[in-house]
Specification:
By secondary structure, the chain is of the alpha+beta class. Helices cover 19% and strands 33% of the residues. The protein is globular and about 65 Å long. It binds fe (ii) ion (FE2).
Length: 403
């Protein structure tokens, strides 16, 4: 008994001291604690926030069921009344996993919601009987609940950020984001190569995702454009588990305010047969699939009616290697005809602005591994600044709306 009490006290202490800038604390709701406490280890964070839907992801140290409680932003306490529960589930069964993914639909556009994430450990089965352990949850007592605002295509102006090529240097990401006004930030892009190669879940969170959650990702949506390095390492096959999309694809289009974003998976940079890929790459066919999707998505009303059309893709199309040529050949001709305003890239660890030319009808702006792209719309102008670690603007581009 004394041993259990000791572990419980230690767990509560550790939970309390690991609070962060958004004050996400984790509560142990039930008082019976096994030798190793059931804990929320990572997250929660938002994925694929849209006008009427959002996905929540979080990780527990052992398997269990998970759910989100959702409340409107109406000034009431979170426990003013019972809040609706949305379970991680598929095909009629609640998911039993250490990775918890909940997609909530039928939300209102441009609306603030509050939420609380829960997990309950599943300790075993006895025939058809399911045995449960402790429940953990994000806190709504000592701190305000986590919240988010759904996208709204009628919003007049937006602000967004883009990081790329962090390669596990989360202290660089932290430094670049230190002065951001999050209340005035709609969304963030991770434009590829956030790690060098991936060997484990713990590495994924150590490299950059724990820091992202600490700083913003529980409340401000992060949209991921996979780079070439995301495809490397024995754990790279699990990437989608942590950044799931409602379509099942890692390429997608979404709209926020006057801007539509086409987000690509840029694939590897060398031919599939390159010795560096050890026979595991199959990107030529995959990129052809994306080209088919692109031909469809540019006919979407949200895309057609947007004032600004922005492409987010890790590898710039004029790089001479195979991966870039594939983007140039398969995507650029379609994008040229689709009225794209600008393409935002990473990959080369440099800040670079390329005027339209050489068969590319739109400008391309490259962000570096140690700079932050900070963009905003102001009426008929889209203004994109690249900021270095000293907070200085090192490149600035202004796009005038042409439709
Ligand atoms: Fe890259």
């Amino acid at each position: 008994m004394m041993k259990k009490l000791l572990y419980f006290s230690l767990a509560l202490f550790l939970i309390y001291v690991t609070g962060n800038s958004q004050e996400i604390y984790y509560d142990t709701v039930e008082m019976t604690v096994p030798d190793e406490p059931f804990l929320m280890a990572h997250g929660p964070y938002l994925q694929h926030l849209g006008e009427t839907a959002v996905t929540f992801v979080w990780i527990t140290n052992r398997e269990g069921i998970g759910w989100i409680e959702l409340a409107p932003d109406d000034g009431t306490h979170f426990y003013h009344k019972e809040r609706p529960k949305f379970f991680a589930a598929s095909h009629g069964l609640k998911s039993v996993s250490s990775v918890h993914t909940v997609r909530i639909a039928n939300l209102e556009p441009g609306t603030k919601y509050r939420y609380r994430a829960y997990s309950q450990e599943v300790t075993g089965y006895s025939g058809t009987r399911v045995e449960y352990g402790n429940t953990v949850a994000t806190n709504v007592y000592r701190s305000v609940p986590l919240e988010f605002v759904t996208n709204d295509h009628t919003k007049s102006d937006i602000n967004f950020l883009m990081l790329s090529d962090i390669h596990g240097n989360d202290h660089v990401m932290e430094a670049l984001l230190q002065d951001i006004e999050w209340g005035n930030t709609d969304l963030v892009f991770f434009n590829g190569d956030m790690y060098g190669h991936l060997e484990s879940r713990e590495q994924l969170f150590d490299d950059f995702m724990d820091k992202a959650v600490d700083i913003f990702a529980g409340e401000i949506p992060m949209y991921y454009a996979r780079g070439n390095h995301e495809a490397r390492g024995n754990y790279a096959h699990n990437f989608f588990d942590y950044f799931p999309s409602p379509t099942g694809d890692l390429y997608y289009m979404f709209r926020q305010g006057p801007v539509s974003f086409l987000v690509f998976d840029s694939g590897e940079d060398k031919p599939d047969s390159d010795i560096e890929y050890y026979g595991i790459a199959a990107f030529d066919e995959y990129m052809a699939q994306q080209a088919e999707w692109l031909n469809e998505v540019i006919r979407d009303d949200d895309f057609l009616n947007s004032k600004f059309k922005v492409v987010v893709i890790h590898i710039p199309p004029y790089h001479p290697w195979h991966g870039a040529r594939r983007i140039y050949d398969k995507f650029v001709p379609v994008l040229n005809d689709a009225g794209v305003d600008i393409m935002l890239c990473g990959h080369r660890h440099r800040v670079f602005y390329q005027e339209p030319g050489d068969g590319i009808a739109f400008p391309v702006l490259e962000n570096a591994h140690n700079t932050l792209l900070k963009a905003r719309t102001e009426g008929d102008r889209l203004i994109l600044d690249i900021i270095n670690l000293d907070g200085e603007i090192v490149e600035s581009v202004v796009i005038e709306a042409n439709n």
